[in-house]
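User: I'll paste a sequence; please echo it back and then give the predicted structure.

Assistant: Echoing your sequence first, then the prediction.
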Amino acid sequence: MKIFNVEQIRAMDAYTIAHEPIASIDLMERASQAFVRWFCNQYVNTRPIAIFCGKGNNGGDGLAIARILGACGYDVQVFIVEYTLNATDDFRHNYARLGNHLTPRRIHSENDLPKLGSKVVCIDALLGSGLSRPVEGLLSIVIQYLNELPNRLVSVDIASGLYTDQSNGPDDVIIKPKYTVTFQLPKLAFLLPQNAEYVGEWHVVDIGLSTRYITDTVTTYFFTDKFEAEKRIKPRQKFSHKGTYGHAVIIAGSYGKMGAAVLSGKACLRSGAGLLTMHVPTCGYEITQISVPEAMTTVDEAEKYISKLPDLASATAIGIGPGIGQEPATVKALEKVLEQAKVPVIVDADALNILSTNRHLLYKLPQNTILTPHPKEFQRLAGESSNEYERLEKAQAFAAKYKAIICLKGANTAVILPNGEVHFNSTGNPGMATGGTGDVLTGIITSLLAQKYDPADAAILGVYQHGLAGDRAAEARGQTALIASDVIEHLGW
């Protein structure tokens, strides 16, 4: 699913109006009906509704929503904020369509703000996606009033005051909704942690905008949903054998950190690799053989850390990093992997920290090496960022410079490709914020690489399946009780 910027969103509307063809007021009606369908599934018509409208097209949506909800039997009040003398044509048309059924109240000053009962559901239709400057004056007062209410708050398309595809200032006044119901496609703002309280739980409703425009328009941002993920899965063939599905090699573990190796190995096997060799320090031999009996194990000559490479001749993918520590001999082993690898490589955990302190190794990364940093690891690699938009730009620049693929872990993990594309993930939950889940991801992606998935597809699909397994695990265990092993046990293809 594509994610468009403000200009592309405007152009998508205009293209649909011109080529469907459909009048803009009728397209607004379609959007409002889609919003109401979602709303009626969420709230029964015994809940009173208060809709706060600006005087632009978002306010026009609010007026149409008010009329449609009223026809559905809801008790609706409409409040128009008089922050300007100007109103858009579609706002005026929808105001006229209210007729005698609803009489909006005008808010000219703070004294006009209503007193609402606690059961009233408030709908924010003040400002839309085209906002380009901070909210001031009367609108600012209304937004602060709505945020202070205990009532449920639902934003139409985007929370008023929130920029669609750039960072807000720290003092900007922005609606804090429980839900955001957006039109046709998600917006970049929804996917970045700094905006969490200004988005709430977001939902996309289809309003029939031009599929041709969406297909033909180029963007660098994407959202990986079920359809986008599953189309990347390679079906297994009847006459295949274990050799068909590759030989993964995972170099992992050190004294006290063998759990990371075990988790990555188990996840690799659960994700379909035909063969797995785990290379571990001597202290980890028995642990690995007992915990991951399906894997072959080679033993490093060092007792407590990785110092040498295993035989990589038959490998079809290499994963390195979980629990390996940062001993000088381990640094040299990582360097040799990067120099000698003739197959795809994924670098995680301690190996990422080695890269950040031995920056010359970044220039030895094989093309399309996959890096899987959490925010702190990425900060060590690329430097501090003032906000998530800047961090995303740094990740795009980093991926382009080193021709690497970055899985920037977190809610909506972003997979950044060397060509600048960013693929946000749709799966996963806060229960996965626990030790070892990153090692599981490393095992999954290593397995996909071993099976000859294109590195970009391996990263995008691996992140999706990792989050999906986490969602299944949370459903079974609850988020608080979830541990990394649960994610492995809920992997399913």
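The chain has a mean pLDDT of 98. The two ends are 21 Å apart (CA to CA).
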